[in-house]
Amino acid sequence: MEKEIFGVAGVPTNYKGKFKDLFAWLKGMGLNAFEIQCTYGFKISEDRQQIIREHNNNGVFFSIHAPYYINLGSLNKAVVDRSFSNMKEGISLAKSLNITRIIFHPGGGHENTPEGRVKAINQLVDAVNKLTSEIDMGEVRLYPEIGGKTASLGSLDEIIDICKRCKYCYPCIDIAHLHAREIGSINTKQDILDKLNKIKSALPDKFDKIHFHAYTIEYGDKGEIKHLYHGKNMADGRVGKPNLDDFISSLKELKLSPWVISEALDSQELGAKYMHDLYLKN
Ligand SMILES: [Zn+2]
Q1: DSSP secondary structure string, the chain?
Q2: Residues with CB under 5 A from ligand 1 (ion)
Q3: I need a surface site. Which of 24, 29, 197, 244 has the fewest CB within 10 A?
Q4: Ligand 1 geometric centre to CA of 103 (Å)
Q5: How many angstroms does the Cα of residue 39 sit away from the middle of ligand 1?
Q6: pTM
């Protein structure tokens, strides 16, 4: 990757201008990435598509976050079938916009037992492999994301497993979700290095194409509660984690090409700028 990539998920709350001027605003803060949040479906208006085309490959890097209802691991066959055809639409949309990364949640609605989870992951892997054999993927790659709740699919092991078994899948490592679903597992730089090294040894060919989500998070005994505002503490006063300084210095130490999206609550651009500035510092 020729350049470091740092940006935001969705239009930042603090941005009040027009969509077409958003990218200059981001650039003013040194940011060059935008994750399109297709929360309610793989639909982008013609106007926006035109604006995206103008900026794509012209200094801005776009990724697409799939709708939240995509669920290829569900026990409900109708949900899986609908998710399957939705994903096809998403891949066509990404191809038409020259976007190479689609982020999706592995889902839920499975039986939350070790056997139930294995079954759900097997079903997801079969569905993804069927999907990618039926459609020309071009440059598009699918990124299953770490889930934030203990019950949701998408533990680190499950994401690694999916990426091992699906040629077109690459890991989306949301380090805040990982911290939350493991009830506060990332407390030192070594904790981050251990996670990343685990991915490196399991997926050596995919390691340099990891997609990151990074911000701090509030969690409880079931995992994720909410994303924190950049720099704010948890409700009980504990400092928000994972530590972004440790995260950035880990990326540098492992010489990873960073494609990092901030999902900090109402402050995505502040989180992204903070991490980018750190990255540029020696
Ligand atoms: Zn997500």
Answers
A1: --S-EEEEESS-TT--S-GGGHHHHHHHTT--EEEEE-TTSS---HHHHHHHHHHBTTTBEEEEEPPTT--TT-S-HHHHHHHHHHHHHHHHHHHHHT--EEEE-----S--SHHHHHHHHHHHHHHHHHHHHHS--TT-EEEEB--SBTTSS--HHHHHHHHHH-TTB--EEEHHHHHHHTTS---SHHHHHHHHHHHHHH-TTTGGG-EEE---EEEETTEEEEEPPTTPPPTTSPPPBS-HHHHHHHHHHTT---EEEE--TT-HHHHHHHHHHHHH--
A2: 145
A3: 24
A4: 7
A5: 10
A6: 0.97
